[in-house]
Amino acid sequence: MKQLLFILLAMLVPSIAFASDAAHQTIDLTSHWVGYAAIVIFVLAYTLVILEEQLHLRKSKPVLLAAGLIWILIAWYYGAHGMPHAAEVAIRHNFLEYTELFFFLLVAMTYINAMLERDVFDALRDWLVMKGFSYKALFWLTGILAFFISPIADNLTTALIMCAVVLAVGKDEPKFIAISCINIVVGANAGGAFSPFGDITTLMVWQKGIIQFQEFFVLFIPSVVNFVIPAAIMQFAIPKGNPTAQSSEMTPIKHGGLVIVVLFILTIITAVSFHNFLHLPPVFGMMLGLAYLKFFGYYIRKSGQGEIDKSDMPNAHAIEDEGFDIFDKIAKAEWDTLFFFYGVILAVGGLGFIGYLGMTSEFMYGELGATNANILVGILSAIVDNIPVMFAVLTMNPDMSHTQWLLVTLTAGVGGSLLSIGSAAGVALMGQARGYYTFFSHLKWMPVIALGYAASIYVHLLING
To answer: Other C-beta atoms within 10 Å of 280: how many?
Structure first.
Protein backbone atom coordinates (compact mmCIF):
# COMPACT_ATOMS: atom_id res chain seq x y z
CA MET A 1 0.00 0.00 0.00
CA LYS A 2 2.82 2.39 0.87
CA GLN A 3 4.54 1.78 -2.48
CA LEU A 4 1.28 2.33 -4.35
CA LEU A 5 0.74 5.60 -2.49
CA PHE A 6 4.14 6.89 -3.55
CA ILE A 7 3.62 5.80 -7.13
CA LEU A 8 0.38 7.77 -7.29
CA LEU A 9 1.97 10.77 -5.60
CA ALA A 10 4.88 10.63 -7.99
CA MET A 11 2.41 10.73 -10.88
CA LEU A 12 0.63 13.78 -9.51
CA VAL A 13 3.88 15.66 -9.12
CA PRO A 14 6.30 15.05 -11.98
CA SER A 15 9.02 13.94 -9.62
CA ILE A 16 11.13 11.89 -11.94
CA ALA A 17 14.69 12.86 -12.76
CA PHE A 18 18.23 11.81 -13.34
CA ALA A 19 20.61 10.22 -10.84
CA SER A 20 24.02 10.33 -12.49
CA ASP A 21 25.74 7.07 -13.27
CA ALA A 22 28.94 8.71 -12.11
CA ALA A 23 27.59 8.85 -8.58
CA HIS A 24 28.15 5.05 -8.40
CA GLN A 25 26.21 4.67 -5.18
CA THR A 26 22.76 5.99 -4.40
CA ILE A 27 20.54 5.43 -1.41
CA ASP A 28 16.82 4.74 -1.80
CA LEU A 29 15.20 7.48 0.27
CA THR A 30 11.65 7.02 -0.98
CA SER A 31 10.55 5.65 2.40
CA HIS A 32 12.77 7.95 4.48
CA TRP A 33 11.72 11.24 6.07
CA VAL A 34 14.11 13.03 3.69
CA GLY A 35 12.05 11.75 0.75
CA TYR A 36 8.78 12.68 2.44
CA ALA A 37 10.06 16.18 3.22
CA ALA A 38 11.31 16.69 -0.35
CA ILE A 39 7.91 15.76 -1.82
CA VAL A 40 6.10 18.09 0.61
CA ILE A 41 8.46 20.94 -0.29
CA PHE A 42 7.93 20.38 -4.02
CA VAL A 43 4.14 20.09 -3.74
CA LEU A 44 3.94 23.30 -1.67
CA ALA A 45 6.18 25.14 -4.14
CA TYR A 46 4.19 23.96 -7.15
CA THR A 47 0.92 24.93 -5.46
CA LEU A 48 2.27 28.48 -5.28
CA VAL A 49 3.22 28.27 -8.98
CA ILE A 50 -0.34 27.27 -9.91
CA LEU A 51 -1.71 30.16 -7.82
CA GLU A 52 0.65 32.68 -9.46
CA GLU A 53 -2.14 34.84 -10.91
CA GLN A 54 -4.09 34.96 -7.64
CA LEU A 55 -1.09 35.63 -5.38
CA HIS A 56 0.85 37.85 -7.82
CA LEU A 57 3.94 35.86 -6.82
CA ARG A 58 6.28 35.12 -9.71
CA LYS A 59 6.50 31.40 -10.37
CA SER A 60 10.30 31.26 -10.21
CA LYS A 61 10.47 32.17 -6.50
CA PRO A 62 8.91 29.08 -4.92
CA VAL A 63 10.71 26.59 -7.19
CA LEU A 64 14.09 28.25 -6.64
CA LEU A 65 13.55 27.91 -2.90
CA ALA A 66 12.32 24.33 -3.26
CA ALA A 67 15.33 23.30 -5.36
CA GLY A 68 17.76 24.66 -2.76
CA LEU A 69 16.00 23.02 0.18
CA ILE A 70 15.70 19.62 -1.51
CA TRP A 71 19.40 19.47 -2.39
CA ILE A 72 20.36 20.65 1.11
CA LEU A 73 18.50 17.65 2.53
CA ILE A 74 20.11 15.26 0.02
CA ALA A 75 23.64 16.62 0.52
CA TRP A 76 23.29 16.52 4.29
CA TYR A 77 22.09 12.91 4.33
CA TYR A 78 24.73 11.65 1.90
CA GLY A 79 27.45 13.57 3.74
CA ALA A 80 26.36 12.03 7.02
CA HIS A 81 26.69 8.58 5.44
CA GLY A 82 30.19 9.06 4.07
CA MET A 83 29.28 9.85 0.43
CA PRO A 84 29.70 13.64 0.19
CA HIS A 85 30.49 13.64 -3.56
CA ALA A 86 27.54 11.57 -4.82
CA ALA A 87 25.11 14.46 -4.56
CA GLU A 88 27.69 16.83 -6.06
CA VAL A 89 28.07 14.72 -9.21
CA ALA A 90 24.30 14.43 -9.67
CA ILE A 91 23.57 18.13 -9.21
CA ARG A 92 26.38 19.10 -11.60
CA HIS A 93 24.84 16.92 -14.31
CA ASN A 94 21.42 18.52 -13.84
CA PHE A 95 22.95 21.98 -13.84
CA LEU A 96 24.83 21.31 -17.09
CA GLU A 97 21.58 20.28 -18.81
CA TYR A 98 19.94 23.46 -17.57
CA THR A 99 22.86 25.63 -18.71
CA GLU A 100 22.62 24.40 -22.32
CA LEU A 101 18.91 25.16 -22.46
CA PHE A 102 19.36 28.48 -20.65
CA PHE A 103 21.74 29.95 -23.23
CA PHE A 104 19.72 28.53 -26.12
CA LEU A 105 16.55 30.20 -24.84
CA LEU A 106 18.37 33.41 -23.94
CA VAL A 107 19.54 33.88 -27.53
CA ALA A 108 16.06 33.15 -28.91
CA MET A 109 14.45 35.59 -26.45
CA THR A 110 17.02 38.26 -27.35
CA TYR A 111 16.12 37.97 -31.03
CA ILE A 112 12.39 38.16 -30.24
CA ASN A 113 12.93 41.27 -28.11
CA ALA A 114 15.00 42.85 -30.88
CA MET A 115 12.15 42.24 -33.36
CA LEU A 116 9.67 43.69 -30.88
CA GLU A 117 11.81 46.82 -30.50
CA ARG A 118 12.02 47.20 -34.28
CA ASP A 119 8.17 47.03 -34.41
CA VAL A 120 8.10 43.91 -36.61
CA PHE A 121 5.19 42.38 -34.70
CA ASP A 122 3.37 45.70 -34.27
CA ALA A 123 3.39 46.15 -38.04
CA LEU A 124 1.87 42.68 -38.49
CA ARG A 125 -0.81 43.44 -35.89
CA ASP A 126 -1.74 46.78 -37.50
CA TRP A 127 -1.89 45.24 -40.96
CA LEU A 128 -4.43 42.70 -39.76
CA VAL A 129 -6.48 45.33 -37.94
CA MET A 130 -6.65 47.68 -40.92
CA LYS A 131 -7.68 45.06 -43.50
CA GLY A 132 -11.33 45.06 -42.41
CA PHE A 133 -11.74 41.29 -42.13
CA SER A 134 -14.97 39.78 -40.75
CA TYR A 135 -15.08 38.30 -37.25
CA LYS A 136 -14.96 34.77 -38.66
CA ALA A 137 -12.06 35.60 -40.99
CA LEU A 138 -10.12 37.14 -38.09
CA PHE A 139 -10.85 34.08 -35.97
CA TRP A 140 -9.23 31.85 -38.59
CA LEU A 141 -6.42 34.26 -39.50
CA THR A 142 -5.23 34.78 -35.92
CA GLY A 143 -5.39 31.05 -35.25
CA ILE A 144 -3.52 30.11 -38.43
CA LEU A 145 -0.87 32.77 -37.87
CA ALA A 146 -0.44 31.56 -34.29
CA PHE A 147 0.03 28.04 -35.65
CA PHE A 148 2.71 29.05 -38.18
CA ILE A 149 4.56 31.75 -36.22
CA SER A 150 4.88 29.65 -33.06
CA PRO A 151 7.32 27.11 -34.59
CA ILE A 152 9.77 29.95 -35.35
CA ALA A 153 9.23 32.25 -32.42
CA ASP A 154 7.58 30.71 -29.34
CA ASN A 155 4.01 30.06 -28.31
CA LEU A 156 3.96 32.78 -25.62
CA THR A 157 5.09 35.69 -27.81
CA THR A 158 2.94 34.49 -30.70
CA ALA A 159 -0.18 34.25 -28.54
CA LEU A 160 0.34 37.75 -27.10
CA ILE A 161 0.68 39.28 -30.58
CA MET A 162 -2.45 37.58 -31.94
CA CYS A 163 -4.40 38.45 -28.79
CA ALA A 164 -3.52 42.12 -29.31
CA VAL A 165 -5.16 41.90 -32.74
CA VAL A 166 -8.29 40.28 -31.30
CA LEU A 167 -8.58 42.89 -28.53
CA ALA A 168 -8.10 45.74 -31.00
CA VAL A 169 -10.91 44.67 -33.34
CA GLY A 170 -13.28 42.81 -31.02
CA LYS A 171 -13.92 45.25 -28.18
CA ASP A 172 -17.62 45.35 -29.12
CA GLU A 173 -17.94 41.55 -29.13
CA PRO A 174 -16.72 39.95 -25.86
CA LYS A 175 -17.75 36.48 -27.09
CA PHE A 176 -15.52 36.87 -30.14
CA ILE A 177 -12.55 37.76 -27.93
CA ALA A 178 -13.06 34.78 -25.61
CA ILE A 179 -13.40 32.16 -28.36
CA SER A 180 -10.60 33.66 -30.45
CA CYS A 181 -8.25 33.57 -27.45
CA ILE A 182 -9.01 29.87 -26.98
CA ASN A 183 -8.31 29.30 -30.67
CA ILE A 184 -5.03 31.22 -30.43
CA VAL A 185 -3.86 29.17 -27.44
CA VAL A 186 -4.70 25.89 -29.20
CA GLY A 187 -3.08 27.07 -32.46
CA ALA A 188 0.12 28.33 -30.79
CA ASN A 189 0.58 25.14 -28.77
CA ALA A 190 -0.17 22.90 -31.76
CA GLY A 191 2.21 24.86 -33.98
CA GLY A 192 4.99 24.59 -31.43
CA ALA A 193 4.68 20.81 -31.23
CA PHE A 194 6.16 20.05 -34.67
CA SER A 195 9.24 22.28 -34.36
CA PRO A 196 12.29 22.06 -32.08
CA PHE A 197 12.00 25.83 -31.58
CA GLY A 198 8.27 25.98 -30.96
CA ASP A 199 8.27 24.96 -27.31
CA ILE A 200 10.76 24.33 -24.52
CA THR A 201 9.70 20.67 -24.41
CA THR A 202 10.47 20.06 -28.09
CA LEU A 203 13.77 21.87 -27.63
CA MET A 204 14.61 19.53 -24.74
CA VAL A 205 13.84 16.46 -26.85
CA TRP A 206 15.97 17.74 -29.74
CA GLN A 207 18.95 18.70 -27.58
CA LYS A 208 18.80 15.30 -25.91
CA GLY A 209 19.35 13.75 -29.37
CA ILE A 210 16.34 11.45 -29.19
CA ILE A 211 14.59 12.99 -32.21
CA GLN A 212 16.53 14.58 -35.07
CA PHE A 213 15.63 18.04 -36.35
CA GLN A 214 13.91 16.92 -39.56
CA GLU A 215 11.99 14.17 -37.78
CA PHE A 216 9.87 16.66 -35.85
CA PHE A 217 8.06 17.62 -39.03
CA VAL A 218 6.29 14.26 -39.26
CA LEU A 219 4.17 15.70 -36.43
CA PHE A 220 2.91 18.48 -38.74
CA ILE A 221 -0.30 16.72 -39.83
CA PRO A 222 -1.23 15.55 -36.29
CA SER A 223 -0.61 19.12 -35.11
CA VAL A 224 -2.86 20.49 -37.86
CA VAL A 225 -5.58 18.06 -36.78
CA ASN A 226 -5.17 19.15 -33.17
CA PHE A 227 -5.75 22.78 -34.20
CA VAL A 228 -8.32 22.47 -36.99
CA ILE A 229 -10.90 20.21 -35.30
CA PRO A 230 -11.61 22.51 -32.33
CA ALA A 231 -11.43 25.59 -34.58
CA ALA A 232 -13.91 24.11 -37.07
CA ILE A 233 -16.41 23.54 -34.25
CA MET A 234 -15.83 26.81 -32.39
CA GLN A 235 -16.25 28.91 -35.53
CA PHE A 236 -20.03 28.37 -35.39
CA ALA A 237 -20.13 30.38 -32.16
CA ILE A 238 -18.36 33.38 -33.73
CA PRO A 239 -20.64 36.43 -34.20
CA LYS A 240 -21.51 37.40 -37.76
CA GLY A 241 -20.53 40.69 -39.34
CA ASN A 242 -17.44 42.88 -39.39
CA PRO A 243 -15.73 44.80 -36.59
CA THR A 244 -16.06 48.58 -36.44
CA ALA A 245 -13.62 50.27 -38.82
CA GLN A 246 -10.33 51.17 -37.15
CA SER A 247 -8.74 54.58 -37.51
CA SER A 248 -5.28 53.53 -36.37
CA GLU A 249 -2.37 54.00 -38.73
CA MET A 250 0.06 51.34 -39.86
CA THR A 251 3.15 51.07 -37.66
CA PRO A 252 6.27 51.21 -39.84
CA ILE A 253 9.00 48.64 -39.24
CA LYS A 254 12.11 50.37 -37.97
CA HIS A 255 15.40 50.26 -39.85
CA GLY A 256 16.87 46.76 -39.80
CA GLY A 257 13.76 45.00 -38.51
CA LEU A 258 13.41 42.64 -41.46
CA VAL A 259 17.16 42.00 -41.48
CA ILE A 260 16.91 40.84 -37.86
CA VAL A 261 14.17 38.40 -38.93
CA VAL A 262 16.54 37.01 -41.57
CA LEU A 263 19.39 36.82 -39.06
CA PHE A 264 17.15 34.89 -36.67
CA ILE A 265 16.37 32.35 -39.40
CA LEU A 266 20.09 32.16 -40.18
CA THR A 267 20.80 31.57 -36.49
CA ILE A 268 18.34 28.66 -36.47
CA ILE A 269 20.07 27.22 -39.55
CA THR A 270 23.42 27.61 -37.79
CA ALA A 271 22.20 25.78 -34.68
CA VAL A 272 20.81 22.93 -36.78
CA SER A 273 24.06 22.71 -38.76
CA PHE A 274 26.14 22.55 -35.58
CA HIS A 275 24.03 19.62 -34.43
CA ASN A 276 23.72 17.73 -37.72
CA PHE A 277 27.10 18.28 -39.39
CA LEU A 278 29.59 19.17 -36.65
CA HIS A 279 27.98 17.01 -33.94
CA LEU A 280 28.18 19.88 -31.50
CA PRO A 281 25.39 20.95 -29.11
CA PRO A 282 22.94 23.32 -30.86
CA VAL A 283 23.44 25.92 -28.14
CA PHE A 284 26.89 26.73 -29.56
CA GLY A 285 25.31 27.50 -32.92
CA MET A 286 22.81 29.79 -31.17
CA MET A 287 25.63 31.64 -29.43
CA LEU A 288 27.32 32.14 -32.81
CA GLY A 289 23.98 33.49 -34.04
CA LEU A 290 23.99 35.98 -31.17
CA ALA A 291 27.21 37.33 -32.64
CA TYR A 292 25.33 38.01 -35.91
CA LEU A 293 22.82 40.14 -34.02
CA LYS A 294 25.48 41.93 -31.98
CA PHE A 295 27.42 42.94 -35.09
CA PHE A 296 24.24 44.09 -36.84
CA GLY A 297 23.30 46.07 -33.73
CA TYR A 298 26.70 47.74 -33.97
CA TYR A 299 25.90 48.67 -37.58
CA ILE A 300 22.51 50.10 -36.61
CA ARG A 301 24.07 52.29 -33.95
CA LYS A 302 26.89 53.49 -36.19
CA SER A 303 24.47 54.29 -39.00
CA GLY A 304 22.45 56.43 -36.62
CA GLN A 305 19.23 54.45 -37.24
CA GLY A 306 19.03 53.05 -33.74
CA GLU A 307 19.33 56.27 -31.79
CA ILE A 308 16.64 57.49 -29.46
CA ASP A 309 14.75 60.66 -30.46
CA LYS A 310 15.05 62.89 -27.40
CA SER A 311 13.97 66.17 -28.98
CA ASP A 312 10.83 66.35 -26.86
CA MET A 313 12.21 64.67 -23.74
CA PRO A 314 12.85 66.78 -20.63
CA ASN A 315 16.49 66.94 -19.53
CA ALA A 316 17.50 65.19 -22.73
CA HIS A 317 21.01 66.56 -22.42
CA ALA A 318 21.48 64.62 -19.18
CA ILE A 319 20.56 61.27 -20.72
CA GLU A 320 23.24 59.17 -22.37
CA ASP A 321 22.14 58.18 -25.85
CA GLU A 322 22.85 54.49 -26.15
CA GLY A 323 20.58 53.86 -29.15
CA PHE A 324 20.11 50.22 -30.19
CA ASP A 325 21.76 48.34 -27.33
CA ILE A 326 21.82 44.56 -27.66
CA PHE A 327 22.35 44.15 -23.91
CA ASP A 328 19.08 45.98 -23.38
CA LYS A 329 17.38 43.25 -25.41
CA ILE A 330 19.11 40.57 -23.31
CA ALA A 331 17.99 42.33 -20.13
CA LYS A 332 14.36 42.14 -21.31
CA ALA A 333 14.42 38.35 -21.68
CA GLU A 334 11.84 36.35 -19.75
CA TRP A 335 14.03 35.97 -16.69
CA ASP A 336 11.22 34.67 -14.53
CA THR A 337 10.71 31.82 -17.01
CA LEU A 338 14.43 31.08 -17.18
CA PHE A 339 14.79 30.94 -13.39
CA PHE A 340 11.59 28.90 -13.11
CA PHE A 341 13.15 26.45 -15.53
CA TYR A 342 16.25 26.25 -13.29
CA GLY A 343 14.18 25.61 -10.17
CA VAL A 344 12.09 22.93 -11.85
CA ILE A 345 15.06 21.01 -13.29
CA LEU A 346 17.01 21.07 -10.02
CA ALA A 347 13.99 20.28 -7.82
CA VAL A 348 12.78 17.46 -10.04
CA GLY A 349 16.37 16.26 -10.35
CA GLY A 350 16.61 16.06 -6.57
CA LEU A 351 13.38 14.09 -6.27
CA GLY A 352 14.60 11.67 -8.90
CA PHE A 353 17.95 11.25 -7.14
CA ILE A 354 16.04 10.34 -3.98
CA GLY A 355 14.63 7.33 -5.84
CA TYR A 356 11.19 7.98 -7.32
CA LEU A 357 12.39 7.37 -10.88
CA GLY A 358 12.29 3.58 -10.77
CA MET A 359 8.85 3.14 -9.22
CA THR A 360 7.17 5.71 -11.47
CA SER A 361 8.84 4.30 -14.59
CA GLU A 362 7.71 0.79 -13.70
CA PHE A 363 4.12 1.88 -13.14
CA MET A 364 3.65 4.29 -16.07
CA TYR A 365 5.57 2.51 -18.80
CA GLY A 366 5.46 -1.01 -17.39
CA GLU A 367 1.91 -1.36 -16.10
CA LEU A 368 0.06 1.19 -18.25
CA GLY A 369 2.04 0.73 -21.45
CA ALA A 370 3.85 3.34 -23.52
CA THR A 371 0.82 4.69 -25.42
CA ASN A 372 -1.35 5.14 -22.34
CA ALA A 373 1.56 6.59 -20.39
CA ASN A 374 2.33 9.14 -23.12
CA ILE A 375 -1.33 10.16 -23.38
CA LEU A 376 -1.28 10.62 -19.60
CA VAL A 377 1.79 12.85 -19.93
CA GLY A 378 -0.23 15.24 -22.10
CA ILE A 379 -3.09 15.33 -19.58
CA LEU A 380 -0.66 15.95 -16.72
CA SER A 381 0.91 18.82 -18.67
CA ALA A 382 -2.48 20.56 -18.67
CA ILE A 383 -2.66 20.37 -14.88
CA VAL A 384 0.92 21.21 -14.04
CA ASP A 385 3.55 22.47 -16.50
CA ASN A 386 4.84 20.54 -19.49
CA ILE A 387 8.47 21.43 -18.70
CA PRO A 388 8.87 19.27 -15.55
CA VAL A 389 6.70 16.55 -17.08
CA MET A 390 8.86 16.30 -20.19
CA PHE A 391 12.07 16.60 -18.21
CA ALA A 392 10.84 13.71 -16.09
CA VAL A 393 10.18 11.52 -19.14
CA LEU A 394 13.52 12.37 -20.75
CA THR A 395 15.53 11.60 -17.66
CA MET A 396 13.53 8.46 -16.96
CA ASN A 397 14.41 7.46 -20.55
CA PRO A 398 11.91 4.58 -20.88
CA ASP A 399 12.63 1.91 -23.45
CA MET A 400 10.09 2.68 -26.18
CA SER A 401 9.91 2.98 -29.95
CA HIS A 402 10.63 6.09 -32.00
CA THR A 403 6.91 6.44 -32.70
CA GLN A 404 6.25 6.61 -28.96
CA TRP A 405 8.93 9.27 -28.46
CA LEU A 406 7.25 11.32 -31.17
CA LEU A 407 3.91 10.70 -29.45
CA VAL A 408 5.08 12.01 -26.08
CA THR A 409 6.59 15.04 -27.83
CA LEU A 410 3.19 15.71 -29.40
CA THR A 411 1.12 15.14 -26.26
CA ALA A 412 3.38 17.22 -24.01
CA GLY A 413 3.20 20.05 -26.54
CA VAL A 414 -0.55 20.11 -27.19
CA GLY A 415 -1.86 18.70 -23.91
CA GLY A 416 -1.50 22.09 -22.24
CA SER A 417 -4.33 23.41 -24.44
CA LEU A 418 -6.88 21.36 -22.49
CA LEU A 419 -6.93 23.99 -19.71
CA SER A 420 -6.14 27.70 -19.77
CA ILE A 421 -3.54 27.18 -17.02
CA GLY A 422 -1.88 24.34 -18.93
CA SER A 423 0.48 26.49 -21.00
CA ALA A 424 2.35 29.77 -20.82
CA ALA A 425 0.23 31.06 -23.71
CA GLY A 426 -3.02 30.42 -21.83
CA VAL A 427 -1.82 32.00 -18.59
CA ALA A 428 -0.52 35.08 -20.41
CA LEU A 429 -3.77 35.60 -22.33
CA MET A 430 -5.85 35.38 -19.16
CA GLY A 431 -3.90 38.42 -18.01
CA GLN A 432 -3.90 40.26 -21.34
CA ALA A 433 -7.61 39.68 -22.07
CA ARG A 434 -8.71 39.91 -18.44
CA GLY A 435 -12.49 39.77 -18.13
CA TYR A 436 -12.92 38.27 -21.61
CA TYR A 437 -10.79 35.12 -21.60
CA THR A 438 -11.02 33.24 -18.31
CA PHE A 439 -10.39 29.78 -16.90
CA PHE A 440 -14.10 28.93 -17.14
CA SER A 441 -14.58 30.32 -20.66
CA HIS A 442 -11.80 27.97 -21.75
CA LEU A 443 -13.15 25.09 -19.65
CA LYS A 444 -16.48 25.37 -21.47
CA TRP A 445 -14.77 24.32 -24.71
CA MET A 446 -12.51 21.65 -23.17
CA PRO A 447 -14.53 18.71 -24.63
CA VAL A 448 -13.99 20.11 -28.13
CA ILE A 449 -10.27 20.64 -27.47
CA ALA A 450 -10.06 17.11 -26.04
CA LEU A 451 -11.61 15.82 -29.27
CA GLY A 452 -8.79 17.47 -31.21
CA TYR A 453 -6.26 16.04 -28.74
CA ALA A 454 -7.58 12.51 -29.20
CA ALA A 455 -7.80 12.89 -32.99
CA SER A 456 -4.21 14.12 -33.25
CA ILE A 457 -2.99 11.07 -31.31
CA TYR A 458 -4.99 8.75 -33.57
CA VAL A 459 -3.66 10.42 -36.73
CA HIS A 460 -0.08 10.25 -35.48
CA LEU A 461 -0.32 6.54 -34.70
CA LEU A 462 -2.02 5.97 -38.07
CA ILE A 463 0.53 7.73 -40.28
CA ASN A 464 3.71 7.50 -38.20
CA GLY A 465 3.19 4.21 -36.37
So the answer is: 13
Query: Which is nearest to 241 in space by CA: 178, 176, 167, 161?
Result: 176
- Compute φ and ψ for 330, nearest 5 degrees: -65, -40
Which amino acid is residue 408, in one-letter code? V
- Listed in sequence order, the residues at least 6 apart from 36 whose beta carbon sits closer than 8 Å to its beta carbon are none
Contact predicate 211/413, CB 8 Å: no
pLDDT score, position 358: 61
> Cα torsion for 440, 147, 230, 394, to the nearest 10°?
-80
Tally of residues, the chain: 465
What letter does residue 367 receive in the DSSP assignment?
I
Q: In terms of Cα–Cα distance, which of 385, 377, 393 is closest to 341?
A: 385
H helix or E strand, kind and range, residue 136: helix 135-149
Residue 384: helix, strand or coil by DSSP? coil
Residue of 202, 118, 123 lying closest to 155 (CA atoms): 202
Question: Quick one: DSSP state of residue 423?
Answer: S
Chain centroid offset of residue 199 CA: 4
Supply the pLDDT for residue 7.
Answer: 36
What is the pTM assigned to this prediction?
0.75
C-alpha to C-alpha distances, 28 to 17, 112, 144, 344, nearest whole angstrom: 14, 44, 49, 21
Q: Where are the domains of the chain?
A: 102-308+320-331
Residue 431: what residue type? Answer: G
How far apart are the C-alpha atoms of 343 and 48, rounded to whole Å? 13
| Amino acid at the residue 34 | V
pLDDT at position 310, please?
44
Pick out the chain residues at pLDDT < 50: 1-23, 307-322
